Structures are given as C-alpha cells and as structure tokens.
Amino acid sequence: MSDMMDDMDEGGEGVVKKFMFVNRKAPHGTIYALEGLEVVLISAAFDQDVSMVFVDDGVYELIKGVNTKGIEVKDFSKTYRALEGYDIEKLYVEKASMDARGLTEDDLIVDVTVLDSAEMANLMAEQDVVISY
Amino acid sequence: MPMVEVAGKSFEVDEEGYLTNLNDWNQDIAEYLAKEEKVEMTESHWDVVNFLREYYDEYQIAPAVRVLTKAVAKKLGPEKGNNKYLYELFPYGPAKQACKIAGLPKPTGCI
C-alpha cells in the first residue's frame, strides 16, 4: 500500500489506460448526463487517459445559455468548463450529430474537437475501455 | 434531515453536517460550521472559503482537493496553493472541511 502511495506522489508509474466516456443523451429528463459527468470527474483522481465523446442528443449537454429554472433542476452545464482544471481536455463531438441539430462549435460552452463518423469510430477502436451513457 | 439553529434562525443540514441549501449560507453559519469542525477562522481561512464559493458559482461543483490546490495557486499564489498550507488551515482535508464551512456540498471525487 505504501508503495502504491509513493507511486501516486511521484506522478504515478501505474498502468494508464485509455478510458472513453460516451454521452448520448440530452442533459435533462434522465440522470445519465449528470451521473456520467460525475463519474468522469471522479475518474480524474486516478490519472488515467480520459476522453469524453458527445454524440446524438448528447451534444445538447454542451450547449451555451442553458436556463433550467422552469424545470427546477440544477444547471450543470457550467461544470463542463471545470473539466480543464481536472486535466480532462479531450472532448470530442460528432459532426453528424451537430449538423442534425443545427449546432456549430460556437453554440458550445467548451472547446471541442469535431470528428466525422469514421474518425470517431477509429478513436473508439483505440480505447482500452469505452463506457457509454 | 437534522436542523441547526444559528443566530436565531434554523437551517437544514445533512447527516454529515453539510448545509443542505447553498443559499442559506452566511457568515454566521460559516462561523458555526467552522466551530463544529474545530477550525478557528482567520483571514487566511476566509480567503479559501470565499474562493470555494466563487469556484462553485462558476462551475457548480465543489472541486476535488487536487483541483482546489491548483486553482488556489493560480488565484492566491503558489505559497498558498500547496497541500502543506491548505492542510495547516484545514487539518481534516481542505476540500472536505473548507467546503463544509463554505456551505457547499461534499466535493465530487472526494475519496
């Protein structure tokens, strides 16, 4: 155990895996988006290679100017902006999902990399672990 | 949920003593929560507590301790943004204790 702590203090010599969290659902109406985001924030403590992907209605999780007053739930969209401080900087959105919803990068609350479907498939194939919400 | 009374008003806290409603927070409650944690508030403590409230306002979460340390270093300088300094102020964990005093929920990723 003490060896493990030493490793962590020294910046980690443990195994680093590529984890991808795939977000497919709209931010509200189900608990998936918020729970998924919390899992990502927790995963940051383990110094893994984490990326987040937003496809289908998942792209709505990142839109600017959200107001949740009317549905009386917490607006956690600002929390995506905290990811950078957690060293989670690999955020990808799928172009077709954005196009289908009339969204561009300018509509999003964080900087993302836009990938087409083939690039997205390649990126997924490179991962050790893919967790989908 | 348990209730606590501070300066003639009662406030709801959870089973671990964290304030349930962020908007209930004021200086009196902070002093009360600090006392519960056996922390004597100084200007340095307030700097961190106020910083946490600003962080929460901006990002809607309480930061993990590693993230807090880094963010404090950026905002208040490296002599304050380090584990030693923050643990001296809040011996039982800066994220946990300072968040509690700041009226924030328990930090996400607090392990």
Task: Name the features.
heterodimer; A: 133 residues; alpha/beta; Hypothetical Protein Ychn, Chain: A; 5-stranded parallel beta sheet; 4 helices; 5 strands; 26% helix; globular; disordered N terminus; B: 111 residues; mainly alpha; Arc Repressor Mutant, subunit A; two-stranded antiparallel ribbon; 5 helices; 2 strands; 49% helix; 7% strand
Largest interface summary: A-B, 14 and 13 residues
> Which spans of chain B of ≥5 residues are poorly predicted at pLDDT below 50?
none
Radius of gyration of chain A: 16 Å
- Average of per-residue pLDDT values of chain A: 90
What is the spatial order of strands in the main beta sheet of chain B?
Answer: 1-2
The number of E-state strands of chain B comes to: 2
Structure in words:
- The complex is a heterodimer of chains A (133) and B (111).
- Chain A is globular and about 45 Å long.
- Chain A contains four helices and five strands; from the N terminus they run αβαββαβαβ.
- In chain A, α3 (95-100) links the parallel β3 (90-94) and β4.
- Helix content of chain A is 26%, strand content 18%.
- Chain A has one domain: DsrEFH-like (Hypothetical Protein Ychn, Chain: A).
- Chain A starts with a helix and ends with a strand.
- Chain B has a two-stranded antiparallel ribbon.
- In chain B, a hairpin with a 2-residue loop joins β1 (3-6) and β2.
- In chain B, α1 packs across α5.
- The mean pLDDT of chain B is 89.
- Classes of the chains: A alpha/beta (133), B mainly alpha (111).
- The A-B interface holds A 38, 41-42, 44-45, 74-76, 78-79, 81-82, 85-86 and B 58-61, 63-64, 66-67, 70-71, 108-109, 111.
Blueprint (SSEs and pairs):
The complex is a heterodimer of chains A (133) and B (111).
Chain A: H1 2-9, E1 18-23, H2 32-43, E2 49-54, E3 90-94, H3 95-100, E4 113-115, H4 117-125, E5 129-132
Parallel strand pairs in A: 1-2, 1-5, 2-3, 3-4
Chain B: E1 3-6, E2 9-12, H1 27-36, H2 43-59, H3 65-76, H4 83-89, H5 94-101
Antiparallel strand pairs in B: 1-2
Helix pairs in contact in B: 1-5
